[in-house]
Amino acid sequence: MNDAYPLFSNPSQINADFSWLQNQFSLLSDKRFPVVPHHLWQPTLLPSPAAYTGPSRIGFYYQWLLNQLIDCHPHLALEAEEIQINEAGKTRGAIDFLVRYQGQLEHWEVAVKFYLAYDNRWLGPNAKDALDIKVARMLDHQLALSSHPSFCQQYPHWQPSKKRLMVQGRLYRHYHSEQPLPDWPPVNHDSIGGWWCWPDALPTDREFAVLARDQWLSLPAFADLPKLERASLQGLSRTCHLLDDSLTPWFVVPSDWPANVPPLPSRQ
């Protein structure tokens, strides 16, 4: 990343990320889940250049990108965003987006995620998160918020007729592993686009560069990235995200990964 730009503020990266969001497939199978249809974004005008000023976390940045794309979409209108649902003085949750499309109000829950195939599960790079847990929460809790009595009482003028998920990101296979890919939840195989490994398994027949946190969506040109010094992988304590010289992304995880695998969700 250009040192002149703080995280999530490089204009060329932001514009590339808008295009990435339009073209990247859902992580989840559209045959099994109520996902926002991919064709909805094709073709769509790109937003005018804007500056992101939110928190330097990729989830907040992704939601901002989507907000901008909805705003310039000829057939979508953003009715509301981040609607807090309160019950007995406590916040029960927040609805990500209420969107009008073809005359109907839709409830969208959105996320950008990166998962690694391990032991029949898709685990997050820090192994504290898992795709099965995320999907269960989005279906059972987040999408249910727009039917909750507290929402209906607080916002009687909003009655969504459809509920959809928009989960993008990337899935990573275990390098040189013979294990089959996880069988739940059903994923879109077009979103599988990288490898992961422990430090001692990183191939030596290619060059690697280091990705900053705001370069995880649209992958920059290899020549523009700082090159990996392999000595930095000795005693690795945090997962690092790399790009090889064939433009394939990699996660290299610490030798003790995954130290604490989250329990399976109850729906399984």
Automatic annotation (TrEMBL):
InterPro entries: DUF1853. It comes from Salinivibrio kushneri. Pfam families: DUF1853. This is DUF1853 family protein.
